[in-house]
Each structure stands twice: as structure tokens, then as C-alpha cells.
Design a protein that fits this description.
Blueprint (H helix, E strand, L loop, with lengths): L17 E5 L3 H6 L9 E5 L4 E3 L13 E2 L2 E7 L8 H7 E9 L1 E2 H10 L4 H4 L5 E3 L3 E2 L10 E6 L2 E7 L7 H11 L7 E3 L8 E2 L4 E6 L3 E6 L2
Parallel strand pairs: 1-12, 3-8
Antiparallel strand pairs: 1-2, 4-7, 4-13, 5-6, 5-12, 6-8, 6-9, 10-11, 10-14, 14-15
Helix pairs in contact: 2-5
The chain binds zinc ion (ZN).
Length: about 220
Amino acid sequence: MKYTHIKNSDKKIQIGKLVCVGRNYAAHAKELGNEIPSEPMLFLKTATCIVDSGQPVFHPEWSDNLHHEVELVLLIGETVKNADDETAERSIIGYAVGLDMTLRDLQNKFRSEGNPWTLAKVFDTSAVLSEFVLKSDYRLTLNEKIWLNINGKKQQESLLSNMIFSPVELVKFISSRMTLEEGDLIFTGTPDGVSKVIRGDRIESGIENIATLSTQIR
Ligand code: ZN
């Protein structure tokens, strides 16, 4: 079982499913040679993928191209199905910064074969999470900067306002296709600048006014 860490709160929420959004920043879709989607492109990770900031990411031996993707993560606080704007907004109770670690070589292979990406996205330590900030403590404006450094050098930097689908739009769409529950997380997609990391690399990343996280590749 994995539980959230919430800033300024003793409350712990058991983490459920991780719904991840692909291609939610136009510049990132372009850098991977993908079309800009007309509706959110979704895949899942499991709670067993999660490690907390400060813990290492273990580089799987079955890949030679481990990529970082820094993302805004939404924490869902209630059961929600077919959400309207108001319900979608209310159901998002907190925010974190997360890494969606991806085996790009396997993803490209599976994509070209027309097979699911599961094993490119789901492996132990493939999701790194900061603590959550409750919406009651900070109201997201989407003007916040999102960034990621490798070994102290800037590698990803964008604004949350560059997301194609906003947090509310994502919750509306996802909940029209599957029920969301308390403890579910939504990884909202990564900006451009994704790149390969190797054992020993140190990653630091953050979202302005929300949180920072750090990890090392082992
Ligand atoms: Zn991602």
C-alpha cells in the first residue's frame, strides 16, 4: 500500500490508480513526432510504481533508454463519475510534482508493433512523488513554472498554462470513461525536453509554489 504525504497535514490517503496523460503539451508531442491530440490520451500506472522524493530510481536492466518526464500530479478526493466543471474542480483536492519515468526504447518498440505500452511505463520506482499541497493551502493558477534539472543543468522548463487539457478538463474527460475515487492520482503529462538518464544521474524538479523533488538513478 502507498499513502500520500500531505504538507501541513497528518492526513494520509491510500493511493489508488494512477491515470497518466500522454501528449498534453504541444511542444512535447512534436519532439516525439506525435500529432496534437483532440482528446486526452490515457494510460495507467500502478501504486506499486511509486517512490517518494529522496528515494532512488532503479534503472531496469531490460532497457537502454530510461527517460524522465516531469509532471503536475492531481490528487482526487472523492468518487467522481461524469463530472461537470464544478464537480471536477471540487474533486481535485491537492497537487504534487511527479516523475513519470519511461522506457522510451520499449515504448517505441511496442508502439511500432501496435502493442500496449504497459511494460514501458510500469516498473518499480517508475513514479516519483513529492508531498502534496492541499488546494485549501494553495490555489493553482496555471501560471506556475514546471522544471527539471539533471546534475544541476536545466533540461525541462515550461508553464502549466502550456497544457493542452487543463486539470478540470482532464477530470471531466477521465471520469466520463472510468470512475475516479479518493486517492487516485492524475499525472497530467510532461512538457518538452525529455531525455535519457543513466545510473548516477541526479534529478531535481519542481513546480513553482507547489513542491520540489529529487532522486538519483541507480
Ligand atoms: Zn508522462
